[in-house]
Amino acid sequence: MQTLVPKEAMMVLAVLQNAGFEAFLVGGCVRDLIMGNKPKDFDITTNATPEQIIALFPKTFYENTYGTVGVVTCGEDLGTVCSDETLKIIEVTPYRLETTYSDNRHPDEVMWSKDLMDDLKRRDFTCNAMAYNPITGELVDPYKGQDDIKDKVIRAVGAPDQRFNEDALRLMRAVRFVCQLDFDLDSVTRESIERNAHLLNNISHERVRDEFIKLIMTDFPMRGLILMKETGLLRHVVPELERGIGVTQNQAHMFDVWEHNLRTLQHAADKKWPLHVRLSAIFHDISKPETKRFSKEKNVITFYGHDVVGGRVTREIMERLKFPKELTDRVSMFVRWHMFFSDTEQISISAVRRLITNVGKENIWDLIDLRICDRVGTGRPKEEPYRLRMYQSMVEQALKDPISLKMLKTDGKRIMDVTQETPGPKIGYVLHALFDEVLENPEKNTEEYLDGRAKELMKLSVEELKALGEAGKEEMEHKNEEQVKEIRKQFKVKA
Fold it and tell me: Is the pTM higher than 0.85?
């Protein structure tokens, strides 16, 4: 375990201990060290007061009511280089006691303690209630966190009702740790979550949102949302998702809307795709319940307009949870356009270009990734069937600028200015002749060369220029055809 502790954390611990204070790594970093994982951050607890901590280090900052002092460990002003930028600041917090939590969010009073046990007993779960001194090798584990890590169990410290009443966000944190660590919930802890799920209403939307994001970004978000639903938490976060339970679909879907949305999200997580794709995945069919209709004429279930309605509902959900505007706009747009028509036997390049215009070049491939997730979420094992691969090739084709006269470092107006020629067919023939030369030798595509060559070409007869121009035009068309063939080969579709 000691070898995984960076020099910056060891330095802070050593300074505190050399000054006569106790100092331990505490919380999630100890859990990660025991599991053999590299911690994302290293938190330290000590029996020193904030003022005593500040006095020991050349550069600190302290702007909170919980006693946490940020110790700057490296940087130019300190004459040291950080091994990792995330370790530039190590947080050090005094042992503390907390009184009642009237709002289920913040302690009514915080007091410094001299006893490590006081600090550990207020922590959320046993796996996070351990302290480790890597200098001496001492591990303090009063609540058998090591055993629960070995057994892969999330268990509240002490009385779970008390822990959740102290900070109701712990209700969601328990579920998130299940997904993050691939653990199970202790039965007593689970029963307490079910009893206290309503306390989540006392937590700010921002904090709930942040915890929801962390859950969505784990490797097992489907499992987490199912657990949130089973424990009653989901109805206090995104109740709209529960409307899909039991809403059956047509033959293309093996699952109801609820499970389909979950499986779509899980595939996005399996592919390690980013937050906006994952959020789009879980929300993409959010409005199928209210748009479900049965067509007697076609004898099928329909959900006409669920994409349009879903885009609006997604925006409402994300605005309620205080998501940033840019992310809200992006995800709601993805939901709005996720039903793009992809039958390549009927769709045209111009239709593909219109979709790209609607969502933006920077978003088109993520939208296709969403479509892949949507497909897998129906229960179909194949991610990218031929039609989708064909559509991808059409997107690639639409994104590439066609090989055209626009590539030339000149145009008809410039040629007329240079040659003093009046408008007429000769100008077009010269342009195509120049283009033919540039295709053969791209280095010729300079204003200086093209200006000089245009003057030479303009001395030829109309018939001679026409022959050269037609050759250039044919070569341009040939190059475009070759480009399309190469794109389709890339996506394994028929050229």
Answer: no
